[in-house]
Amino acid sequence: MNETTGFATFCRRLIAEPARDYIAALDAMRDRGFAGLAFAGIAFALAWFVYVPIHELFHAWGCLLTGGDVTRLEVSPEYGGVLLARIFPFVVAGSSYAGQLTGFDTHGNDAIYLATVLAPFLLTIAIGVPLLKRAARPLAGPGWRPWLLGASVPVAYAPFVSLSGDYYEAGAILVSRAAHWFDPALPLKHWRSDDIFKLVRNLADAGATAFDWFGVGASLATGILLALLTYHVGAWFALRLARRQPQTQLASGDDDETRT
Asked: Is 11 a member of any domain?
């Protein structure tokens, strides 16, 4: 009974944690008024345009570092595609998306495939979530809270923004591999896509079966779980970082919170 209660508590925390952290950060800067919201909006826009091309490069690096090959990474000119194409031989300026890894080879290895898909979200764990949590009690003082909040949001919540893309694809890799074990005749690529909306249209046009829709639904559910777990690992990492801070710094942060 205690194990069941503990698991239920963990599930509730897993689901509520992302919203709770955002509300806490907003509440911590309530005294900044509309100016604080404006600064947070500016920081969000700047962070978004910096994060998007880095996100795409992490896809490529995730593939290369785990043994795959990369031949084409498309990045929209609005996100620095022209500049990046001069630096990296596999980058091409121009894409129907903000960015998309269109030329890569995992050599049939799903571990390399998962590393390729999920590598950018190391930034969520190491930077995004810790910054978001720090926005509620920054050491630099209340003036920095709007900037920390705005800058952290694109990175911290990237897994949820990517539910129809990268995280659906990660879920589909796991679900399709499991289905393939039971039915080797099932093509592994059948449910795999970095765009669930495009996949659904293609399956509908091809006369998808009920099993296909079950596979897509299971892949999406798995992707949602992976996104929540990614955020939770980021929260755990943020806690470990906080515990490493000198006690004088922690006390200073606590005093700052009391004053606000």
From this structure: no
